[in-house]
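Its record is retained below.
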Amino acid sequence: MSMKRICRISDRLLISIVIYLIGAAQGFTEDALTQGKKLLLNNQPDKAVPLFYKAASEGKNDPKINLYLGVCYISMGKYAEAEQQLLAGKSKDTAGAYLYSYNLGNVYFLQSRFTEAEEAYTAALAARR
C-alpha cells in the first residue's frame, strides 16, 4: 500500500514538473521580435537593437521594426541612426506614419533642429488628430 502512495505522489510530482517545463519552454521559444520589445519596454535599448535586426533578417513582417529601432536609437542618443530608421519605417508603415513623425520630431528637437521638429510634430497631428 505504501508503494501505491509513493507512485501517486510521484505521478503528481511528475505532472507538476511537466507543466512547469512546458511553461518554461514557452519563455525560451520567444522570437527575437518579442524579446526585443520586452527589452525596449524594460529600458534596455542597447540589448534590444540586435534582436530587432535579427527579427528583420528572419523576415518578420512587423511594420513597426523600424519604429522600435528608431526609439532604441533615440534612447541611446544616436540621433542619426534614429532618423534613418524612422524615415525608412514611415515610408513602409503608412497607417502608423504619425508615430514616425512624432518620434522624428523628438529627434529633431533633441538636436535643436526646431523648425524640422515643428514640421514633424505638425505632420503627426495632421495624420492623427
